[in-house]
Design goal:
The protein is an alpha+beta fold. The chain is built from 2 helices and 8 strands.
């Protein structure tokens, strides 16, 4: 719980700072017409200078965009296990939907599922599945550009399923459990087309507490993901 509280407080501080920086820039007053030069030689040079400035301004604006919604899907690898014990590698998928409330602040919901097959000695084959459905704030500290880093903190529900094959003299069995779960981390998106980005990487650390009634300790996990992002609408 101390780690949970620390991450939550840190994220709230980032949200406040990002919201303060999200105010629209003030418009600069137009130059005084009396300060403009009248000679024809100086007027010709003054005409070329704004054109160069306009080109430079257009180039700066073109590197930034402001989507309203983001849909991301891709591959996920999760290293999972009880704290202090060896972890197992699990592969699967993730999918998320993000509402960009501000240029630097969004709210994301994410679902993921990862799977593995274990062959423990003196036991039947185990097919283990982990699912989670979480939501929380997502921060874009530099807004959206060609390269867009982000960070988030997610909280929700996890589901564990272990299908154990028959092993004489024991029949097959299925073990399931639910647990609250959370993840904190971030990643990097690379903008490649007007409505598309590549999620170059995403790294998260999370925790669950399955089989708490049996005295089992919490389970930690490290997750690495990558995929594609599609943008809908604009703010």
């Amino acid at each position: 719980m101390k780690k949970f509280a620390g991450l939550f407080v840190l994220l709230m501080l980032v949200v406040v700072a990002a919201a303060a920086q999200d105010a629209p820039p003030q418009e600069t007053p137009p130059p005084d017409s009396s300060s403009q030069s009248t000679p024809s030689t100086s007027s010709s040079s003054s005409q070329t200078e704004p054109e160069a400035g306009e080109k430079q301004e257009k180039k700066k604006v073109s590197t930034r965009y402001a989507p309203k919604y983001e849909i991301a899907v891709g591959f996920a690898h999760r290293s999972y296990g009880i704290a202090g014990a060896s972890k197992i590698g699990m592969n699967g998928w993730f999918g998320s939907f993000d509402y960009d409330w501000k240029s630097r602040i969004g709210f994301v919901g994410e679902a993921q599922g990862v799977y593995t097959t274990q062959y423990p000695p003196q036991a039947g084959v185990e097919h283990i599945s982990l699912y989670s459905l979480m939501a929380g704030p997502q921060i874009y500290p530099f807004a959206h550009h060609k390269v867009t880093p982000f960070g988030h903190f997610l909280y929700g529900e996890g589901f564990y399923r272990n299908s154990i094959g028959p092993y004489s003299p024991f029949p097959s069995n299925v073990v399931t459990d639910f647990s609250h779960s959370w993840e904190g981390g971030g990643g990097l998106d690379w903008h490649i087309k007007p409505n598309w980005s590549v999620r170059a990487f995403q790294f998260d650390y999370g925790s669950t507490h399955f089989f708490k009634s049996n005295g089992t300790g919490s389970q930690g996990s490290y997750r690495i993901s990558f995929g594609i992002v599609y943008y809908l609408g604009s703010r």
